[in-house]
Amino acid sequence: MSSSLAAVAENLVTDTWVKASWEEFVALGNNPDWEKGKFFYHQGYMRIEMAAVGPLHSRQNSVTSRVANFYATLRNIRIVELINASFRRTGVSEFQPDLSYYIGADFRLPPRTNTPIDLNEFDPPALVIEISSTSLGDDLGRKRLIYERAGVQEYWVVDASLDDVIAFEISQRRSGEIEESSVLPGLGIALVEEALQRSQTQDDGEINRWLIQTFSQS
Q1: Which stretches make up the Putative restriction endonuclease domain (predicted)?
Q2: 170-194 pLDDT per residue, tens
Q3: Any idea what DSSP says for residue 54?
């Protein structure tokens, strides 16, 4: 291990941005000691987030996922979901969102490997979602910049503590808040929030039946 990498590793604090070279970032990412971490890199800084293990984050993740998948399925929209997948532009950036989606008729799906998806070869996902149980400020801040510059079309931030969804449409590396999805046309963000609120008192079967009925009628 180089002296600079050793210094970064020794002083590394999770869930915050730390100055590091691309080579140091990749080396730490390949270190088995950090295999449960989520890795981000942007403009000379890296961030390692330790995976949330509590039911709050995992349930919000599950419910949000089903809203997107059920809506696309019942509207005959082509969709592929990836959970905790890494997307990399070598030497420039890397991100690993909670949920990401390729959506539409024309996307080319990356191969089934355990290596980060190469954004120099494949398009970024159309939709990226972060479930914020402890990282809301960063999800609305620096990560939003990462997704703007990566070419993601739409970004949702789920505030798990409030069952609130803040959604952004991204165009020409600029984002603006929206109330209805553009990549899943007709899906109101308020409905995503209602599904999250229902999860406080309803089991998955109840929520699933409500989603199917709602999407079938509208």
Answers
A1: 22-197
A2: 999 899 999 999 999 999 999 999 9
A3: S
Is residue 174 a contact partner of residue 144, using CB atoms and an 8 Å limit? no
Is residue 21 predicted with pLDDT exceeding 60? yes
Secondary structure of 94-149 as H, E, C letters: EECCCEEEEECCCCCCCCCCCCCEECCCCCCCCEEEEEECCCHHHHHCHHHHHHHH
Model confidence at 54, pLDDT cuts 50, 70, 90, reads confident
Q: How far apart are CA 142 and CA 164, in angstroms?
A: 20
Is the model's pTM score more than 0.90?
Answer: yes
Other Cβ atoms less than 10 A from the Cβ of 161: the count is 12
pLDDT of residue 15: 87
CATH code linked to domain 52-217: 3.90.1570.10
At 24, list the tokens: 């140091």
Start-end ranges of CATH 3.90.1570.10 in the chain? 52-217
Would you state the structure tokens that stand for residue 94, as one six-digit string? 């890397």
Q: What is the pLDDT of residue 10?
A: 59
Q: What local confidence, expressed as pLDDT, does residue 5 receive?
A: 58
> In terms of Cα–Cα distance, which of 176, 118, 121, 124 is closest to 147?
124
Residue 129 half-sphere exposure, CB side, CA atoms within 13 Å? 27
